[in-house]
Specification:
Order of helices and strands: EEEEEEEEEEH
Number of strands: 10
Shape: globular
Radius of gyration: 15 Å
Strand content: 35-45%
Largest sheet: 5 strands, antiparallel
Helix content: under 10%
Number of helices: 1
Strand order of the largest sheet: 1-7-4-9-2
Bound molecules: thymidine-5'-diphosphate
């Protein structure tokens, strides 16, 4: 088994006033890593399933800054489903966890922060390979 393979639901402070809300995320302070990469996903139809991979190096924080979506976390030995439906809520996903994002609302904008720049070689896209790696 690989240590520390547990996702963590995060609630960020909302610095709101009469003008609206503001959420700040500083690397290694509000999330467990320094941010090397940001990407965001929008315009996915409701029946689309994204992700379907695990990462050897990258950790992630997922935030639906608009709308909502669900994330299925598959530990290979149990599952967890998280609904992201508030702009100040996120989920931290450590490395070596299989994830699938789905059930996107029409207005969904899913922001993703990561500790590594993109490297396709660290993506595990074959579920059986994932299972054999985690069961080692
Ligand atoms: P993909 O990993 O399939 O997205 P998701 O996991 O959200 O379903 O990535 C889609 C495309 O974008 C693919 O061609 C790889 C590319 N990509 C990058 O170039 N850099 C990145 O950081 C990411 C996440 C994807």
């Amino acid at each position: 088994m690989i240590e520390g393979r547990k996702v963590d639901l995060m609630k960020f402070n909302q610095l709101g006033d009469s003008r609206g809300h503001l959420v700040v995320i500083e690397g290694s302070k509000d999330i467990p890593f320094e941010i090397a990469r940001i990407f965001y996903i929008y315009g996915s139809e409701n029946d689309v399933i994204r992700g379907k991979h695990a990462n050897k190096d990258s950790e992630f924080v997922l935030i639906n800054v608009s709308g909502k979506s669900k994330v299925k976390i598959d530990y290979g030995e149990g599952e967890e489903i998280i609904e992201l439906n508030e702009p100040h809520m996120g989920v931290y996903i450590p490395k070596m966890i299989w994830k699938e994002m789905y059930d996107f609302s029409e207005d969904s904008v899913l922001l993703v922060l990561s500790n590594f720049k993109y490297n396709p070689d660290e993506y595990i896209r074959d579920y059986d390979e994932y299972l054999s790696l985690i069961k080692g």
